[in-house]
Amino acid sequence: MEIVAHGIDLVDCPRIEQMVQRHGERFLKRVFTDTERAYAEANKNDIEKLAGRFAAKEAILKLVGTGWRGKIAWTDIEIINNVAGQPEVTLSGEVKKIADGLGIKHVSVSITHTANFAIASAVALAQSNEDE
């Protein structure tokens, strides 16, 4: 596998909290999958967890080179932790079509956060000639 793209994003956690307070369920359903929401709600620092997922989604949209536009839905990107606690990315819908067109086979993401900020870095991997 070879690295073909990178995206990074920084989110202000209080901004996400304001969005949740202002738009509530509408914002949450538009941006996060049920599984992402359940994960965040199971933690005392749920806003930080949501902000981390939001940053990861933004970073992934940067690595596919689109940003959020057109037929892309926020829920085309899902970030779920595996049993070891590492976040894993699942793409669907329009984002998957774009990623497939770019030859992206896997997206690796790293997320960290504090009470004030969440940052995510995403790396896109494609099959290299050496892998064949």
Describe the overall structure.
The protein is an alpha+beta fold and 132 residues long. The chain has one domain (2-131): 4'-phosphopantetheinyl transferase domain (Ribosomal Protein L22, Chain A, Alpha-Beta Complex). It is built from 4 helices and 5 strands, in the order E-H-H-H-E-E-H-E-E. The chain has helices at residues 13-31, 34-41, 46-63, 93-101; strands at 2-12, 77-81, 87-91, 104-113, 117-126. The strands form 2 sheets. Strands 1-5-4 form a 3-stranded antiparallel β-sheet. It has a two-stranded antiparallel sheet with strand order 2-3. Strand 2 and strand 3 (87-91) form a beta hairpin. The longest helix has 19 residues, at 13-31. The mean pLDDT is 94.
Strand content: 25-35%
Name the CATH class: Alpha Beta
- Please give the radius of gyration in angstroms: 15 Å
pLDDT below 50 for ≥5 consecutive residues: which ranges? none
Overall strand count: 5
Helix-strand topology string: EHHHEEHEE
Spatial order of strands in the largest sheet: 1-5-4
Query: How many helical elements?
Result: 4
The overall average pLDDT, rounded, is 94
Proportion of helical residues: 40-55%
Terminal-residue CA separation:
10 Å
Oligomeric composition of the shown chains: single chain
Query: Biggest sheet: strands, sense, closure?
Result: 3 strands, antiparallel
Total count of domains:
1
Structural class: alpha+beta
Instruction: Tell me which CATH architecture applies here.
Output: Alpha-Beta Complex
Shape: globular
- For this structure, the CATH topology is Ribosomal Protein L22, Chain A
Output the CATH homologous superfamily: 4'-phosphopantetheinyl transferase domain
